[in-house]
Amino acid sequence: MSDTTHLIPVQRNAEGEATVNARDLHVFLGVGKVFRAWIQERIALFGFIENQDFIVSSEFGRNPQGGRPAKDYHLTLDMAKELAMIERTPRGKEARQYFIACEKEYRRLRADSVPVVPTPKKIQTLSERYLNGLPHETVLAEFKLLIELNQFSPGMDKNQAFLGAVGQMEMMGVQLRSLLAPQALALESPHHCAELRPTDLARRFGILRRDGKEDPAAVNRLLADLGYQTHTPKETLAWTPTEKGWPFAVVKDVPRATVQGGRPVRQMFWKDGLLEKIDIQDAFVRMGCLRMQQKTSPQISLELH
């Protein structure tokens, strides 16, 4: 990995196994929780086992606030990968891919240091072939979590949430399609047309202000730049759909609300079919990733020990 920019230090323990300091991972992921609360919550929630998935050391120097020394957690690469995947941020995905690369390099170094002995051809297990080497318990837990999260999206039913989770797992290197019955991939998914506000679009794509709140103004500007609406500040609607945007727009009067002069307040919603447009997907995903990068700290560049 001489040409690779290392993000988080990976060390070897007394047995020669690769480990990661949980504090370094916590800093890189930019988690909003205090380290101690974050690591203890993750261990309890996902059932990680001490002396198997991690070891704890209490010799992390002196505690600057006095009292007992702070605990240090040394994680296996498998646990580090799972923690990175759980966070579901661009940095989490980047860290997981980095640990996979570190693991491959670690295995290569071990192979180079051991004499080559001819061995019978190994038959790949289901986990190795389809689950990217992850334990099936972890895959099932992640799959169920994705289904539940997808069901929070407006207009998405259970079947859509299931099929969406299959695709999301594939993006993480887990191939479930070959393991599922054909009937599972042909579920009926009746369309429920959800009506989304700019605030809903901002929340869905992670377009947030620096204070962490949704940024509907940025969504409106982006929709205008893409030709779906135009700014009409002197009209009842501050933004009016263009010919390109009208097929996806719904305009409603806000009940029991009026502006000066007795005119009703009107509000525009966007049908969820708008999200199927490629230019919308690309632009909104790029803006969401850009906002995420602006919030996170600079990347850590460290060498593999």
Describe the structure.
The model is unreliable at 1-5, 256-260 and 299-305 (pLDDT under 50). With 305 residues, the protein is of the alpha+beta class. The strands form 3 sheets. A 4-stranded antiparallel β-sheet has the order 1-2-4-3. The protein has a 3-stranded antiparallel β-sheet with strand order 5-9-8. Strands 6-7 form a two-stranded antiparallel ribbon. Helix 3 (77-87) packs antiparallel against helix 4 and helix 6 packs across helix 7. The protein is built from 10 helices and 9 strands. Helix content is 41%, strand content 14%. It has helices at 22-29, 35-46, 77-87, 90-113, 126-130, 136-150, 158-171, 198-205, 216-225, 278-295; strands at residues 10-12, 18-21, 54-57, 72-76, 195-196, 229-231, 239-241, 249-258, 264-271.
What secondary-structure arrangement, pairings included, does this model have?
Elements: E1 10-12, E2 18-21, H1 22-29, H2 35-46, E3 54-57, E4 72-76, H3 77-87, H4 90-113, H5 126-130, H6 136-150, H7 158-171, E5 195-196, H8 198-205, H9 216-225, E6 229-231, E7 239-241, E8 249-258, E9 264-271, H10 278-295
Antiparallel strand pairs: 1-2, 2-4, 3-4, 5-9, 6-7, 8-9
Helix pairs in contact: 3-4, 6-7, 8-9
